[in-house]
Amino acid sequence: MSSTLFQTALYASLALCALGLVWRVSAWFRVRIGPDARDVALSQRVAAVFRGAAAALLSRRVFHLLGAFVLDVLLLRRLFANEKLRWLGHLLILVGFTLLLLMHALAGVVTAKLFPAYQPTLDPYLFLRDLFGVMVLTGVALLFFGRSRRPTGLAQLRRPIDAVFVALLGFVLATGFLLQADKIASPRAFYRMAEQFTGSTDPEKLRPLRVLWASEFGVAFSDLKGPIEQTLVDEGRELHRDACASCHAKPASAFISYPVARVLSPVTRLLDEIRADAWLLYFHVFACFLGLASLPFTRFFHAVVNPVSLLVNGAAPSREFSVAGRASRRALAIDACVRCGICDARCSVAPLARYLGNPGLLPSHKLIATAALASGRLLRPGHEYDALRAADGAFLCTDCGRCTTRCPVGLDLEDLWEAGRGDLTAAGLPAPAQWVQARPALAWAESLEPGTAQHSFSDPDASCAPLSADRRTFSRCVQCQTCTNVCPVVAHSNDTDRGVDLTPQKVMNLLRLGLRDLTLGSRMVWDCATCYQCQENCPEGIRVADIMCELRALAVHRLGSVRGRRELS
Question: What is the 3-state secondary structure (H, E, C) of 179-242?
């Protein structure tokens, strides 16, 4: 490969990567998430970062940072606590890719300095190069398998450029294996080596060495057919010992490349004629440069951001951050999320997301919607439906905190959701509880089924609201009012002027009467604190609180379709 072309491509990819990194990192100081971040100037956010870094490095917290670097960044402790299989996959990718970078791509700078006798064609480097590549491939396979083991029932957002980046990574590894296999089997590569070390390319003069390399090194010479004389092999071994052994070992230890070389042996002559080694090298190198240049613009930018997020998390708890510090930390979280889906699998409202068919309730989708809202994309004309779905997802969150405690990169998602809800409210996208309770429950019911407010039990909503559609769930209710007596919402309403329109046992009674639509817009359903006192104290074991949650989800699904109709005035 031309040195000028190589250096030009390298510097160009490094420049694009550096510019991309600067642009992406600058967003941590530009993006504003949450009403409290709007009045924070850029200079304040930059100053807060430097003050926080200085406070962490010049105090006892530096030990927390060291611990976070070793346990969280290198050993991936948080991921290990949540998903052992994915932890293994990430660790294999991290170790395999890092060692490939240091001992292969940067071998002349790193490995040759550490090991003076280093030669890429000697053991253990032949074996290790294949091993590191297989580690990366195995890690990727484990991640895909681990991701598919906990489906949420809803499609996850994937950008085409991310799939292209994964394909590019696979292409780099595949061309690396093929390039090494071609060099093992290529007579052209043999003659080039022979000329360098013996000063000759005469096939007859090199016949003993050719016989040895054909039998023991896998070189596919088309003119060496039939049985091999042992005397030639012994003579070739002496020549090899004198001229080649110092920098060439038997390639059988390359447990991937060597078998591939044996498979390619019938077409090796053709590959030599078309200079396969040259274009494989070009493909391999330029694919690496393309991956480097595109890294900041793909989801895999998290490989750079995650260590920063984990170190920030180790520096201090979120509550100790100033407003300016929290503003930058929220913007950092947008890039640090790896879309691993662990938060989605543990989300307490994931069943509601499936019932509503709205992935906007899931944490990973909420984070994307929060970023879109902060950039203004969510409020552009034509995105009204997406904005309403995002608002439903944000406000139906129960703030249980599972996503934050389970996040493998230490994101403070609770703070992010609170800030995002503030932005949604400021943008005129209120919580479902607000627009539902703005009209009487009877008006909502009449809009769904004019004149009757009835609802059949054999309806298509039974699949998304099974508890409230099945008589066996609530038919045992004896109207004893135990649920009402222990309900804190009812108790609180008695001390205020607002009151409740329906008590819990009345909600159950309406369901028994087949009047489910009358419950969807009731204040009781939307004021329910989900404390589970009603459910735990029910003498008949009726799942009152679960039914309330289900009715709330069903209300968003059904009432949202008629929201804004003139007859609801």
Answer: HHHHHHHCHHHHHHHHHHHHCCCCCCCCHHHHHHHHHHCCCCCCCCCCCCCHHHHHHHHHHHHH
Cβ atoms of residues 177 and 257 within 8 Å: yes
- SS3 state at 471: helix
CB 557 within 8 A of CB 355: yes
Task: Say if pTM beats, i.e. exceeds, 0.85.
Answer: no
Q: Are 343 and 406 in contact (CB under 8 A)?
A: yes
Residues 267, 261 contacting (CB under 8 angstroms): no
Spell out a b/e string for 144-171, using b for 16 or more CB atoms within 10 Å of the CB, else e: eebbeeeebebeeeeeeeeeebeebbeb
The DSSP-derived string for 326-337 is HHHHHHHHHHH-
Task: For the chain, give the number of residues.
Answer: 569
Main-chain dihedrals φ then ψ at residue 33, nearest 5 degrees: -120, 120
Ramachandran assignment for 34, one of left (phi > 0), alpha (psi -120 to 50 degrees), beta (any other) = left
The alpha carbon of 192 is separated from its chain's Cα centroid by a whole number of angstroms, namely 46
How far is residue 493 from each of residues 489, 490, 524, 528, 532, measured CA to CA in Å?
Answer: 6, 5, 10, 12, 18
Task: Please check whether residue 467 is in contact with residue 473, taking contact to mean a CB–CB distance below 8 angstroms.
Answer: yes
Residue type, 119: Q
One-letter amino acid identity for 276? A
pLDDT tens per residue across all 569 residues of the chain = 678 888 899 999 999 999 999 999 999 999 999 999 988 999 999 999 999 888 888 888 888 889 999 999 999 999 999 889 999 999 999 999 999 999 888 888 889 888 888 888 898 999 999 999 999 999 999 888 877 665 555 566 666 777 888 889 999 999 999 999 999 999 999 998 888 888 888 888 888 888 889 888 999 998 887 677 788 888 888 888 888 888 888 999 999 999 999 999 999 999 999 999 999 999 999 999 999 999 998 888 988 899 999 998 887 766 678 899 999 999 999 999 888 888 888 888 887 787 677 888 889 889 989 999 998 888 888 887 788 888 888 887 878 888 888 899 989 898 999 999 899 888 888 777 777 877 888 788 877 755 444 443 344 455 556 788 888 888 889 999 999 999 999 888 765 556 678 899 999 998 888 888 888 888 888 888 888 999 999 999 999 998 988 888 788 778 877 765 443 34
What is the rounded CA–CA span in Å between residue 556 and residue 548? 13
Q: How many whole angstroms separate alpha carbon 423 and alpha carbon 565?
A: 26
- For residue 176, which of 288, 336, 307 has the smallest C-alpha distance? 288
Report the candidate in 76, 68, 189, 90 with the shortest Cα–Cα distance to residue 136: 90
Torsion angle of the four alpha carbons 312, 317, 320, 325, in this order, in degrees rounded to the nearest 10: 30
